[in-house]
Amino acid sequence: MLYLIWRYQRKGAVSQAVISKAFFETAKKLGVTIVPAGIAVSEVGRLRLALNLYKEDNVHMNPYGAYLVAIVFYSTIYRKQASIIQFTKLDPRRYGRLLQYGDLNKDT
Q1: DSSP string of 58-89?
Q2: Fewer CB within 10 Å, N- or C-terminus of the chain?
Q3: Would you place residue 23 in the very low, low, confident or very high pLDDT band (cuts 50, 70, 90)?
Q4: Looking at residue 25, which CATH number applies to its domain?
């Protein structure tokens, strides 16, 4: 498995499209599965869900971002919806919106 990372929220950072393309090309050459965490993070950001996923350094994930990454891993590994996973330290009204983005692999 390749862990497809997210774009850092820094000036001059490489775009998510460039990162994703490189990972998918590499996965194809190696014949391995992609864990599309970066795509999920990018999609949440693109939709402006008023939910920050980054720590103050704009690189690492805060608890909501870590939750999103975890459910992407779960749905990739088990090929099941991650909506059964609850994280009691987070506000369910906020993390519930992330579930649809974490289940990127549920139909594949």
Answers
A1: SSSB-HHHHHHHHHHHHHHHH-S-GGG---TT
A2: C
A3: very high
A4: 3.40.50.1110
Residues contacting 54, CB < 8 A, separation 6+: 9, 60, 61, 62, 65
The reply to whether 32 falls in a domain is yes
Tell me the residue type at 12.
Answer: G
Q: For residue 68, is it within any domain? A: yes
Threshold 0.85, pTM exceeds: no
Task: Supply the range of the domain harboring residue 9.
Answer: 2-102
Rounded CA separation 3/34 (Å): 6
CA nearest 62: which of 21, 26, 94? Answer: 94
Give domain status of residue 108, yes or no: no
Convert the pLDDT of each residue in 47-99 to its tens digit: 766 778 889 998 899 988 888 898 889 889 988 776 666 666 666 666 666 66
